[in-house]
Specification:
The complex is a heterodimer. By secondary structure, chain A is mainly alpha-helical. Chain A is built from 17 helices and four strands. Chain A starts with a helix and ends in a 31-residue tail after the last helix. By secondary structure, chain B is α/β, with parallel strands linked by helices. Chain B has two domains: 192 residues, Rossmann fold, CATH 3.40.50.300; 83 residues, no CATH class. In chain B, a hairpin with a 2-residue loop joins strand 9 and strand 10. The chains are: A mainly alpha, B alpha/beta. Chain A: One of its GO terms (cellular component) is plasma membrane. Chain A: It is a multi-pass membrane protein.
Amino acid sequence: MSNPSETGNAGTMGQALKEALFAGVIAFGMFLLFVGIETYQDINNALVWRTRWGLLAIFVIVAAVGRFVTVAFIKPHIDRRKLNKAKSGVLEISDKKSFFHKHFLKIALVLLLIYPFLSLMIVGKQGSLKYVDNFGIQILIYVMLAWGLNIVVGLAGLLDLGYVAFYAVGAYSYALLSSYFGFSFWLLLPMSGILAALWGIILGFPVLRLRGDYLAIVTLAFGEIIRLVLINWTDVTKGTFGISGIAKASFFGIWSFDTGATNNFVKAWGLSASSVYYKIFLFYIILALCMLTAYVTIRLRRMPIGRAWEALREDEIACRSLGINTVTTKLTAFAIGAMFGGFAGSFFATRQGFVSPESFVFLESAVILAIVVLGGMGSLTGIAIAAIVMVGGTEVLREMSFLKVVFGPDFTPELYRMLLFGLAMIIVMLFKPRGFVGSREPTAFLKERRAVSGSFTKEGHG
Amino acid sequence: MALETITMTNNTLLKVEHLSMKFGGLMAINDLTFEARRGEITALIGPNGAGKTTVFNCITGFYRPTMGMITLQRRDGREFLLERLRDFEITKLAGVARTFQNIRLFSGLTVLENLLVAQHNALMKASGYTILGLLGLPAYRKAVDVSIEKAKYWLDKADLTDRADDPAGDLPYGAQRRLEIARAMCTGPELLCLDEPAAGLNPRESAALNTLLHSIRDEGVSILLIEHDMSVVMEISDHVVVLEYGQKISDGTPDHVKNDPRVIAAYLGVEDDEVEEVISEVEGGRL
């Protein structure tokens, strides 16, 4: 028993060395221009470049050593564990779920509700700004956007690459209507949702007879059209300068968060001045909006229209043979998805106090879509987890100054955001091709509700 | 029993007149005329490529015929010209449901959900186009209960009650066929169009299918089916239409069709001139 394993060991070591060398070569090729060369502007504003061989060497070494360790130690270890499990003949399926697993959603909701106060208690007012705003609000905006897009992509199976257009419509609706007419946030929030839904229908009407790749390309183009209109219609939108000084949301008109106002929230409650209260208020607004999105999605899934969306994703021709008007069904999915995008957009405008076309580039659409796909199409929990990982992860990168110890003092981790984003996506897709939560909850049942495995559900054909 | 239903309701449900369908230069159907009577099982048979599925697609609105008229008269007297309706309207208004040659189930939805999707139009109305349903009004809840009862009824008929909460894609082939028929029945049709329902079934599943089709006919729903398996056709159908190269070559009771020399020639593959010979022989004999 020991003899073959030893020779096997020597074999794996050789194999590991070979693969490590190979990984190093590939990493060198990949990162040579990425990392090895850096361009910057010198004092005369001329673009010059310098080399960073040290950093490149670290990247290559990390790749090679990582590959070596994986092949030589981690993989044999996993294989051995699998083998032992198979030998023992005990299947790891138990009906008993842990307390945490069973009440996961309730625990998560309670945590979210007390999150701002927790952060106030732990890191104080100044520290909370970062945790409530950069983490809490930022992540929740993406959760809401992804849940909105989930209706279009996850439920109805229509690949929409231009979702950010509706986000932009919502944001600019709020920015323009509030600065030109002085309407309040609470009036404009539903209005921007409705306007975005209207744009969803306007786009959807000519486009929804297209399917699959064609639909994806046209929606992509639509997203770009909206952005280009925002850039070039300077009379109204002020072009690339954007619209600044957008009014803050008020506490339902009772208290204001403007420092000069007589009914200022801080003054009314006799608190010491800090912008953290406004951030906490915004946190609860976006949390409520997220909950609304989730509630509507869950309710709609159990309505005939929601079932028709999912049926559409599974098989459009069968839908038509059952007397379902696929055009209106697709349009409602588009419009409702767009509406939530519009809500999120108007919230974004009031939170930033500034909107410009730069916030609505294609990359945003791609990130939202990536969150939906990574989370598991159709699953609200999975998507929320994916949003936390993706958006929270990139925010966490800013905090990782310890990486400077490894990569040298001039290493700025947030610049590698997209690189790591892509890496994370590849890893998740390799190990969980159906996303974090691949199964689907049936909307009706006779005897017991059993989740449908992801291997049966389809992704839709547009 | 079967004979009784024929004599009782011997009127026309579906009338196909001078139907032609051209794909570019190919004449898939050429001046086809036939009718399907209420309460009967009408079979459409013919060799591969005869245009049977094309006829189906014309009747159910998936193709728009180049020429011809397809009239459907509902029990309440309303008449519909199917070639003028869109595909989903044919199911919704005219009461024609269909199944597909290659099964098209919603494989990621459960069996029960498949049957509920089929009742979409009724439920949409009951839910006030979603708006009233979101408020959770009792009228909608009642409609949901009714729809689940209807689904249960057809689950029972198709012998699928045990699998109601399983994903449709998880069912064995024969059960998927039955589910597709049950789903079509949940739309509440007057005419059920089945495209090769017995294809790929083993003898036991085939027998179960026959029972299901008979019980559907006994409920007063007429069936139009395409079938290759002659034993199935001869056993269950009341009326057979035979197509070859997009043209009708025979039309009548199973016995009549079985002995028609043109049908025999089409199925056994006799040379063209020989067909003429056989026909003249038979007709000469008759005269």
